[in-house]
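Thread: Modeling a multi-component assembly for a lab meeting

Hi all, long-time lurker, first post. My supervisor asked me to bring a structural picture of a complex we are working on to next week's group meeting, and I have zero experience with this. I have the sequence lines for every component (722 residues in total). Could someone generate the structure of the whole assembly? Inputs are pasted exactly as I received them:
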Amino acid sequence: MYSELRNHIIKLFESNVRLDGRKLTEYRKPVTVEYGVTNTAEGSARVKIGNTEVIAGVKIEINKPFPDTPAEGGLVVGAELLPLSNPDFELGPPGIEAIELARTVDRGIRESKCVDFKKLCIEEGEKAWFLIIDIVTINDAGNLSDASSLAALAALKDARFPKLEGEKLNYKEKTDKRLDIKNSPIAVTVIKIGEKFIVDPDTDEEKAIDARLMVSSIEDGTLCAMQKGGNYPLTAEDIIKMVDIGIEKGKELRKAL
Amino acid sequence: MSKLLVNEKEIVVPGETLATGMDNLPGNGTYRDGENIIASRLGLVQLEGRAIKLIPLAGRYIPKTGDTIICKVIDVSINGWRLDTNSPYSAMMSLKDATFDFIARGADLTQYYDLGDYAVGKIINVTSQKLVDVTMKGPGLRKLKGGRVVEVASNKVPRIIGKAGSMVSMIKDATGCNITVGQNGLVWIEGTPENEFLAIQTIRKIENESHLSGLTDKIKAYLEKAKKK
Amino acid sequence: MAYKERLNKRGFEETRPIEAKVGIIKRADGSAYFRIGNTIAYAAVYGPRNLFPRFLQDPQRGILRCNYNMMPFSGSGERVRPGGSRRSKEISLVTGKALLPVLNLEEYPNTVVDVFIELPQTEAGSRCAGICAASMALADAGLIMKDLVAAVSVGRVDDKLVVDLDYSEESYEGIVADIPIAMIPNSNKITLLQMDGMIPKEDVKKVLEMAKKACKKIYEVQKSALKDKYKVEQDV
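Re: Modeling a multi-component assembly
Sure thing. I ran the full set together rather than chain by chain. Output:
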């Protein structure tokens, strides 16, 4: 359906430019992170990449730990592709794209060990802190995935624990206690179209994607999560190149925090 | 006592009273409610004699007979093509309106227009239920090859075209691009990457500043400055 | 016990501070942001657009669909489970009914106009904030409409009638009534009215009168927000 568009994009890539004049591995500007955008969440952040905008909010609850990790708190990540943000998104329970997005963001945070879940345990097997991150899309102008994972991390950094009064939580009062975030896992989705690699696709480029690789890495360049997507396969050489781009660009994105 | 409450080129919102009394006449985008003339959409006031009308500042394109539009093939059926018109209504293009060629019964229609193809067509009929017919027979009507299509607000199209096509000619001359502007808010542009990009930037600028005066001079200066770089 | 002074120190007919903006969501055909105190609403309008499945189409007019949704972290207490509740469904319905009278959908047969209202942060008065945002977004989308719609809640706290109850008043221990009202500002017609709590019937007239005054003020904010969108661009 988009073969004309795809041919055009590939033709442009030959001269190292994109539809909107950017270089191949250049993010839209500015990338901004705004903290504390909603006071009903324990922590929240708004991320804008160009015209793309997402909000992430963290609610902190006390729950019974999962049976397989009785001495640890928990992390739950949800993502909603709101029909408010894109004419093609529909109402209803999260579709597979939203679930994939939530799970990849979840893995990036969990596997980077940026949060020590053991420290979130209050009483082994009985009570522990649970972090529930919800990501919602406000305007989809492409690359929701990188914006979402950046917003989720920023919201965690912004979070303060609610007041524990005896058995109950008082959400009206936030304490000064913050989460101890040890590192900053940043996800960069590297896109392959034709023979070229790009980051931060806009809406048109997203229609022409062959394959994508979401690369999450921490400050020292260690990888903490990956996810391959798109309908076409990648070679080992492709993946090595994409990982390099992902780590490199991750460093750049991290500065926005 | 009749009284005009707004000035030429003033921005008004739905519900705003534009004039009282019976001396003025309600034009496009307004309605009469008893003694008053009221705005029925977001628009720019235009006074024409006794009539008050509004030039819309926003809104989707609604197909009109006689409009030349850029459309996209979204389905190929047995007796023609279904086209997306960048409006709430799709259009039909029948075999006889598609080409001067003879199309044999049972021929593969995708060799003429395939899914995803863009074309400049003309609306020949719109029914009360908004069934739309499009033809390719006419001067300048054709399939669009290469280049790219960008979307603009359809109400800005007259400004992008300019008086007797002056604005779009200016962009064509400065950028060397081929440009076709559809009344439905789709613009087709073809040129070198840098020039295509400049043409799009210019069109975006017109879109954002279309309600301001002195637009032509501003765009001229903008293009000259951009070309120097 | 008498309610001499409002818990939030506002005048009895004073709303919380209001802020409004349009055109905040670029993908949408029209969009708006409306904030009253701690309650924030976003609204996006898509349409008129194609409506499927076909049997939903009305050949005489376009249809209006509204959806009101609280973001999972927008409640003052625990996380709001995503996916909508009976409450949000009802609010979606009455929001649609509140907006429909000003729209001229006969112009767009067989289509749908979708309005999505999302709340990132709430503290009382969220349906009214949603309606205010939605009506601005509809105008921003360039739809043909007779007027805007403004909405506010009026209520009773103890022995006093007050405008725009906040959380402290909604949870006041004593008699509380909450009456969300939407109005067409130029004709003073009422398009939404709900009530929970108790008031003597003599108060109804006063309540409507107070709502009218407050809605006029809100309408002025909505109006200037719509105009400001074009002023801002002028400065650039």
